[in-house]
Amino acid sequence: MRRFSAIAALALAALSLAAVAAADPGDHGKDKGKADHSRLTFSFATTDNGSCSTPWANDTLIRTYVVKDNGDGTFTVTRRDRGVFVTLAAASPGSCETTSHHGKTVRAGVTGKVVGFIRGTVTGGTFDPNATCTGANCGATDTFIATHFGTGAQFSCFTNSTDCLFNFNYTAAHHQTLLFRHWQDKGKGAGTSLSELFSGDIADA
User: Fold this and answer.
1) Are strands 154-155 and 105-106 parallel, antiparallel or unpaired?
2) Residue boundaries of the structural domains of the chain
3) Regarding predicted confidence, which is higher, 96 or 22?
4) H-only helix segments in 23-165
5) Which residues contact 187 (CB under 8 A, 6 or more apart)?
6) What is the spatial distance between Cα 1 and Cα 85, in angstroms, rounded to a whole number?
7) Dihedral sign (CA 146, 129, 27, 23)
8) How many angstroms separate the CA atoms of 170 and 201, rounded?
9) pLDDT tens digits for 52-78?
């Protein structure tokens, strides 16, 4: 579940974010248009880790948090990411996968789109949609939770829990001479209850 770890290494990708404005967030827009939801959006850049738990790309994202009050003191939080990636010269994101077709390495400078979501529950906090945060890390999930729910709040996707769902898809642009151009990281649960599936790759060798 490397996609939602709070990594702060920043780098800008080369593609326009407008190119992915209409992309499916991966959860079929289940929260769209509901009046009891609060939405907060950030621009965020992060280094992305692959199946080997090592960096393979830099992502530039539009990151939206959708917060739903469950009425029992807990909150459902869905984080949607959409944006672009540019690869490092590294092991390909799927290179440590053992159950699907994949490559081994990817060269620097391969570009593409990323879209996905993660959903879990916040407990032990009170949501403040008007909380103030400044700096490059406001879009990081741990920073968002601490800022908008309080430092004592817990997010189920950061604990040993079955209450977490995520699905992230990466697609490289055409005409870049690749063996594989789509990689998916999806699963459910977190910590000791994590069940994660990698499929495909972004690889040229």
Assistant:
1) unpaired
2) 2-203
3) 96
4) 141-149
5) 1, 165, 166, 167, 194, 195, 196, 197
6) 17
7) negative
8) 9
9) 999 999 999 999 999 999 999 999 999
